[in-house]
Amino acid sequence: MSIREDAINNKVTPIFENCAKNEGITTETLIKGVADGTICIPKNKNHNFEKIIAVGKGLSTKVNANIGASKDYPTVEQEMQKLCVCLKAGTDTIMDLSMGGELNHIRQEILKACPIPLGTVPIYQAISDTVEKQKKKIGEVTVDEMFKVVEQQAREGVDFMTLHCGITRSTVERIQNHKRLMGVVSRGGSFTIEWMSYNNKENPMYEQFDDLLAILKEHEVTLSLGDGIRPGCLADATDRGQVQELIHLGELTQRAWEAGVQVMVEGPGHMPLNQIEANIMLQKRLCHGAPFYVLGPLVTDIAPGYDHITGAIGGAIAASAGADFLCYVTPAEHLKLPSPEDVHEGIMASRIAAHAADIVKGVPGAFEKDLAMAKCRNNLDWKGQIDLSVDPEKARRYREEGNTYKGDACSMCGSYCAIKVYKQATSEKRLQK
Predict the structure, then answer these.
(1) Any idea what DSSP says for residue 268?
(2) What is the Cα–Cα distance from 127 to 131, expressed in whole angstroms?
(3) Closest by alpha carbon to 35, among 13, 51, 61?
(4) pLDDT at 433 over 80
(5) Which end of the chain is more exposed for a tag (fewer CB within 10 A), N or C?
(6) Which secondary structure element, helix H or strand E, spans residue 207, and what is its range?
(7) For residues 120, 122, 127 and 132, what is the CA-based torsion angle, rounded to 10 degrees?
(8) Which alpha helices (DSSP H) does 37-186 contain, by range?
(9) Which of 414, 293, 343, 294 shows the shortest CA–CA distance to 84?
(10) Each residue of 120-135: pLDDT tens digit?
(11) Residue from 95, 118, 93, 63 nearest 357 by CA
């Protein structure tokens, strides 16, 4: 029995009890959400970790951080350093997007040290093995090789996988008949389309979807339906290619649920502020309330070096409107492979966005954190403020750099601190006079 099938049968298991405790909800509420498909628990039966989390309706907005080696930076050491940064910064999940170096070794080392859910994009390895090791073309990777990579990663313990099952020949035709400014910017999407074009065949992940589901169910892998046609610039947002793929993803969501496989659906991408809420509503409607996992969305195209900010702005709006899962964006987006420092900045920006949205959603405990911070500020309790900060180390460093950290004010206002002046003005002694 899979996690989803246990939920449908209302069978209480240790996974549900552990997860419900971590999420601060009742086991009954969690089980109902998993049975309905509005909540998923990314937990491969081959990956052992203690803090089991869930993604979906009524829960805190989760944050994912991407790491992974490239051809230019292929070492496992840097990725392990990034993993440590991710865990310290408080990300909820991690994805290994490696396309350089010894991919099996890198993933296996990350898995061994990863105490939270780990995701991958299996087509990355299938393509890399074919092009880099076999010196063949992208289109020459075989369907058998694609599925073997999925099975291998599932067997090793990968908890959720991005698979671009919604791209079909009809989707590609729609893109070609409705020209985009930037075409396809998803690596997995472009690989899939190149394979389809080279072989003049349908997407095997769509055509052999039932075989794919069988592998995922056997190892309890959550299916993250990839948005391979996501917009890569504001001008391409919410066009017919994106929407057509979303329609397919909704259909595939139902098929996966029927097979006992948990699902979340991925979303854009680059998108103007005024289209975000409509896109969330569209996804929830077409995909039957399945958890929604968004990349950003980035709300402007002109901020390279600051895309952790553009992504956080879009992420806060998206999550407030109902998105459940934010994939972080780092300052290095569009420019280079992120450094450990970039990873830290990206996670913090997305965590702030997620928390801001949780206040709007009414997630239990979210507003209480801000209330506690306000009380500490009112009392000029600097230790309390630092301890409550999303990034205590940075808050402490800034406080100490002000050279007044031993006093009760900061170096901006000093003796003119508004809180101190107001308290003096309204003190009981003054009022008695």
Answers:
(1) -
(2) 6
(3) 13
(4) no
(5) C
(6) helix 204-207
(7) 60
(8) 76-89, 103-113, 122-128, 143-156, 169-177
(9) 343
(10) 999 999 999 999 999 9
(11) 63
Q: Is the peptide bond before 204 cis (omega within 30 degrees of 0)?
A: no
Q: Are 326 and 61 in contact (CB under 8 A)?
A: yes
365 and 24 Cβ atoms separated by less than 8 Å: yes
For residues 22 and 43, is the Cβ–Cβ distance under 8 A? no
Beta bridge partners of 266: 293
What pLDDT band is residue 431 in, cutting at 50, 70 and 90?
A: low
Residue extents of the structural domains in the chain:
58-361, 366-432
Q: In this structure, what DSSP letter does residue 44 have?
A: -
Q: Is 125 within 8 Å of 149 (Cβ atoms)?
A: yes
Q: What are phi and psi of 93, to 5 degrees?
A: -145, 165
Compute the distance between CA of residue 326 and CA of residue 267 in angstroms, rounded to an integer. Answer: 10
Q: Which two structure tokens, joined as six digits, stand for 192?
A: 């899939």
Q: Which fold has domain 58-361?
A: TIM Barrel (3.20.20)
